[in-house]
Amino acid sequence: MxxxxxxxxxxxxxxxxxxxxxxxxxxxxxxxxxWARDWDRVKVCSDRCRAAGPTDVTNPGLRGHRNEPPA
Length: 71
Description:
The structure is a single chain. The chain has about 70 residues and is mostly loops. The chain has a domain at about 15-50. The protein has one helix at about 45-50; strands at about 20, 30. It is elongated. The N and C termini lie far apart (about 45 Å). The model has no long low-confidence stretch (mean pLDDT about 75).
């Protein structure tokens, strides 16, 4: 099944957009149009991560979106 393109090839593929790593969950996220003016200041991937704040994403064995310690 082929993908339907609304933009007729005018927008770049998501893989070609700049990426950053979320300081809260450690997951990569891509540039979004609504962040165009503020891309240099964007540090988190979502409102959920913004509310949670920065966490230690280097600690292995953590679970969940926020990388909370196992119960």
